Amino acid sequence: MAPRSGTRPFSQKTITDVAQRAGVSISTVSRVINQSAPVSSNLENKVKAAIAELDYRPQTAARALAGQKTHTIGLLLAEIGTDFYPLMIRAIEAEARKNHFNLLINVAGDDTSIEGEIPYTLGEYNSDGVLVFPASLSDDELYRMHLNNFPVVLVQRRPPAGLEFPCITIENKLPARKMVDHLIEVHGFRRIAFLSGLADHEDARRREQGYHESLESHGIPYDPTIVAQGYFQKQASQDAVCEWITAGFEFDAIFACDDISAIGALSALNRAGLNVPNDVAVVGFDDIEVSRFLSPPLTTVKVPIQEIGRAAIQQLLAFMNGEVPDMCTHFETELVIRRSCGCR
Amino acid sequence: MAPRSGTRPFSQKTITDVAQRAGVSISTVSRVINQSAPVSSNLENKVKAAIAELDYRPQTAARALAGQKTHTIGLLLAEIGTDFYPLMIRAIEAEARKNHFNLLINVAGDDTSIEGEIPYTLGEYNSDGVLVFPASLSDDELYRMHLNNFPVVLVQRRPPAGLEFPCITIENKLPARKMVDHLIEVHGFRRIAFLSGLADHEDARRREQGYHESLESHGIPYDPTIVAQGYFQKQASQDAVCEWITAGFEFDAIFACDDISAIGALSALNRAGLNVPNDVAVVGFDDIEVSRFLSPPLTTVKVPIQEIGRAAIQQLLAFMNGEVPDMCTHFETELVIRRSCGCR
DNA sequence: TTGAAAGCGATACCAC
DNA sequence: GTGGTATCGCTTTCAA
Predict the structure, then answer these.
(1) How far does the CA of A124 sit from the C1' of C13, in Å?
(2) In this structure, what DSSP letter does residue B291 have?
(3) Which stretches make up the HTH lacI-type domain (chains A, B) (predicted)?
(4) What is the DSSP string of B205-271?
(5) For residue B12, which nucleotide's C1' is closest to its Cα?
(6) Whole-number Å distance, CA A222 to C1' D11?
(7) How many CB pairs under 8 A join A and B?
(8) CB–CB of A68 and B6 under 8 A?
């Protein structure tokens, strides 16, 4: 029989091949693969042998179609090319794999969808549930998923008003405030600059609030000239700090709302020949992997990145299994004092 | 009709729903979705309207099963939690998406497969082709894929003897040699330490060869006491350099076989109170995103990370389309002189 | 405990 | 151009 056009150029073993080789029905093969019903150990061994001999792997498409489960979890991010995500994704991938789920990755920012065309993203048509990161999915889409009762877990993001989704959050405002308190109380700084994040990023906004609160509680006036947008980017942050320096603005410390911006700040200072922390102190937030290896090691707030990833998958799995997930998993964060603030 | 057990808890629109709503057959719906045959613009509009009204998205499982294509590309890595991959994955994701392919990610190192169980990884049963990174897949598995004529593109890795796969490679030995030449000829260093990578990583081995060749051509004896394994890791590299310092070994420069190890080296030197580049110079390889923001900015070899990712997808797509891919796509790399070597 | 057979939701062939 | 229908490979009922 000639293959139809569109047939793959490579052969695929099927469950029927296995069944024939083992001398059983395909039902039995399915049962031993999925352990979905008892099979006599005699047949079970035959089937296992046949599977091994043929090096058979079930086609996921057929499995998904018949079983109405894709065995796939989707990851929806706004941007994957940043230093914040490697460890997060590592943890997510490991946890998904442990539970025999595949990981489908989708970066919303790269969207090339054409008006009127069906969008190729993540949803009920290709996964059993998704992890949604900040700024990656519109409220409309979230609403649609909610209507369809599709399992979604929000990471570092709370659900929009009226919707209920489990979410994984972290403590931002208080540690940000404590960090600035530290700069003020321990080191005596009063001119503390701030590098903000993205406007649609909740964590970043709360960190900025912490900055304001600390300033206020110490009676230090807010000075917008030493506040700039870092956009979670090294280059933008470096540029901003360079401008401050060029403009002659005075500041004795910089609080960056994430470590990536802090790296940009460190770089700007280094280029200007300023010493950290002697001339200017720099502190960040997140404690990404590289932070403790910087020169000087960065004082920051430790966010349990891998725990967040693990928890996200666990809540999603619970949701998918029809269990009641924790609607809010909240992680504490703590100051990590290293050398860039002037300590030691 | 009651749903069978195992049915998803959430409803799914089907092509039949769309056909009914538009008053056409499912064949016609399929044609407009895939533009696989001409459809009168009258019906086409009706179908598009129905799709929009129902917010219909074709189920990928059904599509894959019927069409014998998964529309999915697999990424097989040994480790995803490193600073080298973010930009690579970003480029790969963007390029895959542009071509309407999904991205499935699999980290081989996390393997939790159980003896006798069917391994849940990547292959012909769940993707149309895979990108294989160093140390992520055994030669046996590669051989199996080759037998099945399954599209594979190797990235930063050459095929094992006897197998033919398109591969994406970069220039390693020559630039490594030039880098060490630079250290010797421009800066007059003769005690140059080396931080090696992983033994099963071809790029790392070639870079080490470049180091040897440069030393040899300058008549500098190879000194194993100042050569250590950095394992592409910051911590391991930091530890190695700390040990050298503690042991009192002398060296005036460190050539790290990748930027990640260089960061570890920088950190060790900083902790020991040594100035880079005045006391010891440090150079790396890869030019990952953070390198130019380090203090001091890192002299390194620029590897076109995003171009590699893009080329890998393009070759894989060609392979999958039955075209003849370039069996070897080779990228040049160039020295990027910054300040950590002592220049400026 | 086992096998036969009815779907799952698409694609693509065939006839009209 | 359009519709009917066999088919993809598997899971799950149902009957034995």
Answers:
(1) 30
(2) G
(3) 13-67
(4) HHHHHHHHHHHHHTTPPP-GGGEEE-TT-HHHHHHHHHHHHHHT---SEEEESSHHHHHHHHHHHHH
(5) C9
(6) 64
(7) 215
(8) yes
Give the integer Cα–Cα distance in Å for A26 and A17.
Answer: 9
Tokens of A77: 């991010």
Determine the Cα–Cα distance for residues B312 and A192; give it in Å rounded to an integer.
Answer: 46
Closest listed residue to residue A280, CA positions, set A252, A314, A309: A252
Using the beta-carbon criterion (under 8 Å), do B295 and A295 form an inter-chain contact? yes
Would you give the DSSP letter of residue A212? H
Domain count, chain B: 1
* Residue range of the domain that includes B197: 173-303+335-341
Do residues B302 and B336 touch, judged by C-beta distance below 8 A? yes
In a domain? residue B190:
yes
**d(C-alpha B131, C-alpha B152), whole Å:** 6
**Phi/psi of residue A300, each to 5°?**
-155, -170
C-beta atoms of B102 and A82 within 8 A: no
Q: What is the CATH number of the domain that holds A237?
A: 3.40.50.2300
Tell me if A111 is assigned to some domain. no
Instruction: Determine the protein residue whose CA lies at the shortest distance from the C1' of C6.
Output: A66
Q: Do B270 and A86 touch (CB under 8 A)?
A: no
Which residue in chain A is spatially nearest to B118 when comparing CA positions? A57
Q: Chain A residue closest to B35 (CA)?
A: A117
Chain-centre distance for alpha carbon A36:
34
Residue A257 in domain: yes
Query: Which residues lie below 8 Å from residue B128, measured CB to CB, with a gap of 6+?
Result: A8, B69, B70, B71, B72, B73, B101, B151, B320
pLDDT tens across the length of chain A (344 residues)? 223 333 455 678 999 999 999 999 999 999 999 999 999 999 999 999 999 999 999 999 999 999 999 999 999 999 999 999 999 999 999 999 999 999 999 998 766 666 667 777 899 999 999 999 999 999 988 998 998 889 999 999 999 999 999 999 999 999 999 999 999 999 999 999 999 999 989 999 999 999 999 999 999 999 999 999 999 999 999 999 999 999 999 999 999 999 999 999 999 999 999 999 999 999 999 999 999 999 999 999 999 999 999 999 999 999 999 888 899 999 999 999 999 999 98
Computed over its alpha carbons, how large is the radius of gyration of chain A? 26
Is-above-0.85 flag for pTM? Answer: yes
Report yes or no on A256 lying in a domain. Answer: yes
Please choose, from the candidates B44, B41, B24, B21, the residue with its C-alpha nearest in 3D space to the C-alpha of residue B33: B44
Nucleotide C16 C1' to residue B27 CA (A): 15
CB contact under 8 A, A80 and B70: no
Report the sign of the C-alpha dihedral through residues A4, A8, A9, A10, in that order: negative
- Closest residue by C-alpha to C1' distance, nucleotide C3: A25
Q: Is the peptide bond before B86 cis (omega within 30 degrees of 0)?
A: no
